[in-house]
Amino acid sequence: MKAWIGSGILVAGILLAEPPGALAQAQAGAQAASQARAASQQAAPQQQARASAQSAQARTPAPAGGQQRDPFRPIVIKGAESAVDIAPNCTQPGMAGTLIGQVQMQGIASDVEGRWIAVVGNKTGRAYFLRTNDPLCNGVVTRVDQDALVMEERTLDSFGRTRTREVVLRPADD
What we know:
The protein contains 3 helices and 7 strands; from the N terminus they run αααβββββββ. By secondary structure, it is of the alpha+beta class. The protein is rod-shaped. The chain starts with a helix and ends in a 5-residue tail after the last strand.
C-alpha cells in the first residue's frame, strides 16, 4: 500500500511540475491581465454612459410613426390633463357661473314683447330668468320655446377635443 501511495505522489509531482519557460509565460500573462483590467476600468465610464443612454431611449415613448407605444403608459394629451380632470372654472356670480347640469327648470313665461323667458333655479334655490344667447359657465342658451329651454353645452373629452351637445329642459307637468 505504501508503494502505491509513493508512486501516486511521484506521478502527481511529474504532472504538476512546470517546464522551464512556464514562469516567464505566467509573468507575461499576469502583465497582460493587469493591462486589460486597466483598459476596462478606463472604458467603464464610457460603457456606463452608453448603457444609460440606451436605457433612457427604452424609457421614452415610441414615436407615432408606425412603432408600437408602451402599453403601460396612459393615453393622455399634455395640457388636456387639467381640463379633463377638473370642472370648468366658474367664478362669475349668477347664472354665468352656473353649470348647465345644475340648472333646474321651474317654468316658462312670456315677456311683454311676446318673447319667451325660462324661469330656472340652481342649487342655491334662487330664481333666474334666461333668454336666448344668455351665457352659462359651460355653454349658452340657444333657444327658449313655449315648451322647452334648449342650451348648448361645451365639454372636453378624454382626448382634449371640445365637444358640444344640445341639452333640452322641459318644465314639469303639474
